[in-house]
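Good morning,

Attaching, inline, the backbone tokens for the sequence recovery test we're adding to the shared suite. The designed sequence is right after.
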């Protein structure tokens, strides 16, 4: 490997251990050190491909502490590869703190193409538009999940979820909108890979009757933004600001040239 960079961001398989590029193997063999989330997980991959490079831990609990070490190590002329337990680093994985400091210090950084659960999942989901919004792991509270969905209901919203939370999350989304269409993928690239696209009630029933394993990638399909739906959204926002019904009627009627009786019908 001819040295062109000091720091390499290297994707690793999300399931099937064969899903790694020749270049990724080459880089992992040639760098001086591999920074990884969990050395026990990474070591299995390294052993499989007979990679002898030393590993050091780099995770969300020690990333600030590791910055000076990494900078000094690279300034000594050494090279580093960053990996996560699975997939592409920096996608819902630690690395942002370190990468910011590397850029500030003009360290040469590159990222290798490779496995990522989001693109692997989306490549199997027929969509009317290429647009989507990836929001990472959903927040914990039902209100936060509901608010996030409300903000993104007119786009294809993609998110990660864990097996122990998936049913609760689906039920929270269903409470927000009974008619959500959703796509779900789990165990991607593994033997028991499963991709389902259906109404949210059918998906809840499916996972309620089976043992839930594997990490999930999900997408709520965008709602159609009709004129009526848009008007309801505007009224809802005014209600949240504690405007009275009479005030809402006057505001919406004046700004959007809507019949007052139509507005009143939507208020109750």
């Amino acid at each position: 490997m001819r040295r062109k960079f000091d720091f390499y961001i290297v994707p690793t398989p999300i399931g099937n251990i064969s899903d790694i590029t020749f270049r990724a193997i080459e880089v992992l063999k040639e760098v001086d050190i591999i920074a990884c989330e969990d050395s026990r997980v990474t070591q299995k991959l390294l052993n499989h491909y007979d990679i002898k490079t030393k590993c050091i831990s780099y995770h969300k609990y020690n990333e600030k502490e590791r910055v000076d070490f990494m900078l000094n190590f690279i300034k000594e002329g050494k090279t580093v590869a960053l990996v996560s337990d699975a997939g592409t680093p920096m996608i819902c994985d630690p690395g942002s703190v370190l990468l910011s400091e590397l850029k500030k210090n003009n360290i040469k950084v590159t990222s290798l193409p490779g496995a990522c659960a989001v693109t692997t999942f989306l490549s199997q989901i027929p969509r009317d538009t290429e647009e989507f919004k990836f929001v990472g792991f959903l927040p914990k509270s039902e209100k936060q999940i509901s608010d996030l969905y409300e903000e993104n209901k007119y786009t294809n919203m993609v998110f990660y979820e864990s097996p122990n939370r998936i049913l609760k999350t689906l039920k929270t989304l269903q409470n927000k909108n009974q008619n959500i269409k959703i796509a779900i993928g789990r165990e991607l690239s593994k033997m028991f890979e499963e991709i389902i696209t259906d109404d949210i009630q059918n998906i809840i029933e499916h996972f309620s009757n089976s043992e839930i394993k594997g990490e999930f990638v999900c997408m709520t399909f965008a709602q159609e933004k009709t004129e009526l739906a848009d008007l309801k959204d505007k009224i809802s926002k005014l209600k949240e600001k504690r405007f009275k019904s009479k005030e809402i009627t006057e505001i919406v009627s004046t700004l959007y040239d809507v019949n007052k009786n139509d507005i009143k019908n939507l208020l109750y």
